[in-house]
Amino acid sequence: GQQVMQIPQYQHVQEGEDFTTYCNSSTTLSNIQWYKQRPGGHPVFLIQLVKSGEVKKQKRLTFQFGEAKKNSSLHITATQTTDVGTYFCAGGGSARQLTFGSGTQLTVLP
Amino acid sequence: DGGITQSPKYLFRKEGQNVTLSCEQNLNHDAMYWYRQDPGQGLRLIYYSQIVNDFQKGDIAEGYSVSREKKESFPLTVTSAQKNPTAFYLCASSATGMNTEAFFGQGTRLTVV
């Protein structure tokens, strides 16, 4: 079945540094979604990418979808303590269900 | 307010007992999902339902059962056959299939002693 790998599993950064998490699928995806889960909370939708090579920005967050629609990345510029949490990618495939990556847990040190 | 509600937030059960986790949504979503989250792991799909009275097994369905008698409700039963039931359980819903965003409930943390 479809597998979605996400790296790194953990990332510690100093406040103000940049952060990137990567997502790779074993199969071509129809779309990729990104979610953020704050400590003790539940995942909250951030964005969806559908088109090959698509790039979207939300303030300091930049999301990319690969040309082959098998990989994606989330980049945060100049991290802040409010960025702390676990970031998940989720790939949509032919089975009309989302397959979640294992997540990247981001710690921002003040 | 529209949303998806899981109850209870914390649940303790003795080993060998079945337990049912509640999930209700008033978003008028057709699709509903149950995920299990363990420390350091992603969200693993237990069961999903695209329409009332129909549901499908996910990746880790063994030891779990669900029902979808109403559009708004998708309860999950953790049976005694589930070998390692202690986990954080998340329910989600979305409009027609998963090419739209999923809305998650607050989660239920189940501890089996």
The largest inter-chain interface, given as chain pair and residues per side, is:
A-B, 26 and 25 residues
Radius of gyration of chain A: 13 Å
What value does the average pLDDT of chain B take? 91
Q: Helix and strand succession of chain A? A: EEEEEEEEEEE
Q: What features would you describe in this structure?
A:
The complex is a heterodimer of chains A (110) and B (113). Chain A is mainly β. Chain A has no helices and eleven strands. Chain A has strands at residues 4-7, 10-14, 19-25, 31-37, 44-49, 55-58, 61-65, 71-76, 85-92, 98-100, 104-109. In chain A, the strands form two sheets. In chain A, strands 2, 4, 5, 9, 10 and 11 form a six-stranded mixed β-sheet that branches. Chain A has a five-stranded antiparallel β-sheet with strand order 1-3-8-7-6, with no helix packed on it. The N and C termini of chain A lie far apart (41 Å). Chain B is mainly beta and 113 residues long. In chain B, strands 2, 4, 5, 6, 9, 10 and 11 form a seven-stranded mixed β-sheet that branches. A four-stranded antiparallel β-sheet of chain B has the order 1-3-8-7, with no helix packed on it. In chain B, a hairpin with a 2-residue loop joins strand 5 and strand 6 (54-57). The model of chain B has no long low-confidence stretch (mean pLDDT 91). The A-B interface holds A 1, 4, 6, 9, 30-31, 33, 35, 41-45, 48, 50, 88, 90, 92, 96-103 and B 33, 35, 40-45, 48, 50, 58-59, 90, 92, 97-107.
What's the SSE blueprint?
The complex is a heterodimer of chains A (110) and B (113).
Chain A lengths: L3 E4 L2 E5 L4 E7 L5 E7 L6 E6 L5 E4 L2 E5 L5 E6 L8 E8 L5 E3 L3 E6 L1
Parallel strand pairs in A: 2-11
Antiparallel strand pairs in A: 1-3, 3-8, 4-5, 4-9, 6-7, 7-8, 9-10, 9-11
Chain B lengths: L3 E4 L2 E4 L5 E7 L5 E7 L5 E9 L2 E4 L6 E3 L9 E3 L8 E8 L8 E2 L3 E5 L1
Parallel strand pairs in B: 2-11
Antiparallel strand pairs in B: 1-3, 3-8, 4-5, 4-9, 5-6, 7-8, 9-10, 9-11
